[in-house]
Amino acid sequence: QEERSRSEHNLLNIQKTHERMQTENKISPYYRTKLRGLYTTAKADAEAECGILRRALDKIAEIKSLLEERRIAVKMSGLYSDADPPRKTMRRGVLMTLLQQSAMTLPLWIGKPGDTPPPLCGAIPASSDYVAKPGDKVAARVKAVDGDEQWILAEVVSYSHAANKLKLPDALMARPRRHTLSRRRIIPLPQWKANPETDPEALFHKEQLVLALYPQTTCFYRALIHAPPQRPQDDYSVLFEDTSYADGYSPPLNVAQRYVVACKENKKK
């Protein structure tokens, strides 16, 4: 804030200089030189403020990473081992609030001029050699109790290089059922939100087929993009496949960027 306040005087000078030029209806060598100096200073001020903001964002990311490492260490220490008695059932409202908070706090990718969004930013998939780390949130294709397969929200517990498989429980469920799956049966969720104003290429486009987390559930279903986000804080508007409607799709529903991934299912199914 101090940096921003310091630069306001210079911005005010730029505005006043332009107003004087309009009043006199001419661009004299004096005004040309003065404006060049003022704009050079304004550019330097903006770069300094940008640097401070980036350092602050890096510090926030570092704090979040440390908190996540601690949480995983507690989990891996055996606190939630299979031998432990089941925890008390988490209220559905609490679970949904946690999922919403996770979506809201997903960091926004802010690249420098000329940077391209990295893998796992918005709609950009993970690289082919990416291995999900403990704590990563993923969409996982598992067998349900009735034998059918479904995509669920889950968190990676561990990865076996020898078996090329990941172990993960259902999302944040109170009585997690553990699954061991191959890498091809999981889709890592985005680790950054994409900014529609600067990186629209990192977003799914209208009518693209995706998997989206159905509101108030922990399951992913096939859907079409009805409208991509227009601002960084906006959600996708999606149409879920639903045979109970005449056209085969539900009315538009909002789903956060955090919970929309590319569809890997066979389209014939």
Automatic annotation (TrEMBL):
State its location(s). Nucleus
Q: Which domain of life is it from?
A: Eukaryota
First-listed, main subcellular location of the protein, grouped into a coarse class: nucleus
Q: Which residues form the SGF29 C-terminal domain?
A: 128-269
Q: Name one Pfam family in it.
A: SGF29_Tudor
Does this entry carry the keyword Transcription?
yes
What is the protein named? SGF29 factor
Q: Which organism is it from?
A: Polyodon spathula
Gene giving rise to this polypeptide: Sgf29
